[in-house]
Structure formats: C-alpha cells, structure tokens
Design a protein that fits this description.
This protein has about 325 residues and is an alpha+beta fold. Helix content is about 30%, strand content about 25%. Helix 6 packs across helix 7. The protein is globular, with a radius of gyration of 20 Å.
C-alpha cells in the first residue's frame, strides 16, 4: 500500500522544469507511487492502476485543466469504489486556484513533502469536504464535466485573450496577468475596440433556481465551490442557501472598481454594492447567443437553445495543507 499516489501531467507548463525534481524525489521515497500521463484521455487508465495500490492520498500534479479532468474521472469512474482517497493538488500551472484554496502555495516539491508527512500520520485535522460543479447542457444524457471554478462573460474573454495573445509572447506569468488586466482596464474605461484588446462581452442571461435571473453584459461572471474567490473571500449573505457561489460584476468601470476595492478591503459580501451581484444557488443556467465559459481551464460555450447548466455534486474529500 502506497501512502501517496502522485498523478503527473508532463505537458503541464509548470512541469517542464519541475518534473525532473519530482521524479528524483519520488525515487528517494518508496511510499510514493508516481504515474505520468501524456494526455488527459489516459487519466481513467491511470486511476485504475492507482486504485490497485490503495493510496491514503491522491495528489494531482498539473494545471487546473489536469485537475478538472482527474476530478471528473475520479467522480464518474468509481475506480476506488465507495472509498476514494482525499485529493491534494500541487501548486502548478498558471493559475493554481484550486491549490490555493487547499493551502498549497510556493514550491510544489515542498508541498509534496508536506503531503507525504501528513500521510504518514493521522490526517483527520487536514481533511475538508468540497462540492464540485457539474457542468452539462441540462439533458439527461451525457456525462457532466466536473470542476471547482468557472469563469464566464468578460472574465472568460480576458482569460482567452491572455491565453492566445499574451502567453505566446513568452513573458513571466505574473507579468502576463498584469498586462492582461491593463488591457481589460483600457478596453473597459475608454471603450476602445481593437484586435490587440479583449472583446466586449456578449449579453448573457443567468438564472438561479428559485432566486430569479440576471440579464446583461458582465465584466466578471464567477461560479465556484472554492472558499476563496478572485476578489476576496466574501460569497454573499450568510443566510444564503446553495452550494454554488455566484459573483457577477456589471460591464462598468465603476462596478468593477467597487468589486476590486470591496475585495481588497474585506467588504465583499458584507454590504451591497451597486453593479456587484453575489448569490448562492443549487442550480444555475447560463444562456446566450454565444458566450464562453471556462471550467478549470476547459472551454465551453453557451449558444442559442443550448444553455450551460451548473449543479453541485455530493461533497468530495480533499487534503488541505494548512489545518
């Protein structure tokens, strides 16, 4: 029985320099079972093999897209029967939102060493439950895709702009994100439309089961089950019901400024802000003639007659590095 099973995606951007160190570390620690996949299509086979060694913890080493694919297969594949091991995520990739929520920051190798240390003892104080977002078209057929963070409207457009226009420049990730934020700011404040700037978001209609709907153009649209959002930890009224946390910011410079200031000051979710919408729900529908959403790195599109439907799953165990 391996204490830790490590699932790595060598093609993840962060692994280009990290993986040799990871391999050396695993070679020195025989209680780590290391499995590498070249493509997400191999994750199902990888989990079947990992289940044979009965690990105490499953660690995912890759970007958010790798984590999303692994969570989908882990949830639907039932490779571990009714006792799937808790999941830990190394801080890798370009965004690391899931790893950040689970307290994994800094050097991935240090995080792996900490995970191994926890797996050698009682981990109960470090186990947390998180629902996943199940994304589908609302039909009874097909297998929903699972993740923990969805960005839509202007946020998805900005992510795609960064991915296709800024990352190819070969700049450091942090500087790429700053440059993208500056381009979004210029486009939003001055209304400039150009090929070298993010496009204006298409109108969308967002409906929450029993809570009503919102319609318009939004600079930010976030749905998450994580406990940390991009603009602070507030997630709406304390008495709100529903596992899915929704945040939308109107396509307006002042609304976006209020959201940023509210997040920095800690007022997000504690008081109303004009143009900033915070809700909880158990079913969210996103409808549009054409509007992109990104669930943990994977792109989907809402089109006329083909809405995107989001529902929470049952809680899944995760390993949080900071108790």
């Amino acid at each position: 029985m391996a204490r830790v099973a490590l699932l790595s995606n060598p093609k993840s951007t962060g692994n280009r320099s990290l993986l040799p160190r990871i391999r050396s570390f695993c070679a020195e620690h025989k209680d780590i079972f290391h499995y590498e996949v070249e493509h997400v299509d191999q994750i199902g086979e990888a989990l079947r093999s990992i289940a044979q060694v009965e690990p105490k913890v499953l660690v995912i080493n890759g970007g958010d897209g790798t984590v999303q694919a692994a969570l989908t297969e882990l949830y639907h594949g039932e490779h571990f029967g009714e006792k799937a091991p808790p999941v830990a995520v190394l801080p890798n990739g370009k965004t690391n939102l899931i790893a950040l929520d689970l307290g994994a920051v800094g050097d991935p190798l240090v995080a792996l060493e900490k995970i191994l240390e926890l797996a050698r003892d009682d981990m109960s104080d470090h186990l947390v439950a998180r629902e996943l977002i199940a994304l589908s078209d609302g039909s009874a057929n097909g297998r929903p895709v699972l993740g923990m963070f969805l960005g839509g409207a202007g946020l998805a457009d900005s992510i795609l702009f960064c991915r296709h226009k800024i990352y190819p420049l070969g700049l450091p990730n942090g500087f790429s994100h700053v440059l993208t934020a500056l381009a979004v700011f210029v486009s939003l404040v001055f209304g400039i439309r150009a090929a070298f700037l993010p496009p204006r978001p298409n109108p969308v209609k967002v409906s929450l089961l029993r809570q009503g709907q919102f319609q318009g153009q939004f600079a930010l649209l976030i749905v998450t089950t994580l406990h940390k959002l991009l603009l602070g930890s507030g997630t709406g009224p304390l008495d709100a019901k529903g596992s899915l946390k929704l945040m939308m910011v109107d396509q307006s410079p002042m609304a976006l400024l209020r959201a940023v200031v509210g997040g920095i000051s800690g007022r997000m979710g504690k008081q109303g802000m004009r143009g900033v919408h915070l809700e909880h729900g158990d079913e969210i529908r996103i409808e549009s003639d054409r509007s992109s959403v990104i669930l943990d790195g994977e792109l989907f599109e809402a089109r006329a007659g083909h809405p995107i439907v989001l529902k929470p799953t049952a809680p899944v165990p995760f390993l949080k590095l900071a108790a």
